Amino acid sequence: MLNIEIKNCNNIDLGNIMIKKNSLNIKHGINGTGKSTISKAIEYYLHNKENLKSLKPFKFHLDDSKISEINGLENIKSVKVFNDVYIEQVVYTRDELITNSFDIFIKDEMYKKIWKK
Question: What ranges do the domains of the chain cover?
Fold first, then answer.
């Protein structure tokens, strides 16, 4: 179990969350509680730490001593986030409800056998 600490990220002054490694972790709550901020902080830490600066709360915009931080991910190499961006890019596409829906729902072993004939 990973204990992740988040500091000075948007509306989160200080927060801790637990994430089970190599498992599906679901964080849910009402709008404005910081779910997207948490996922962005994790993604930014892993892929582009410079982007963490974009999460600095407005109330600290003149205070250089306050920086956005996330700790506890030192041994993590990747993460997959199921958020609105994922839904727009993968689930709802222009021509299909789900990307590769033909391959997922129709192109099974039975289909392949019939197609060969």
Answer: 1-77, 82-117
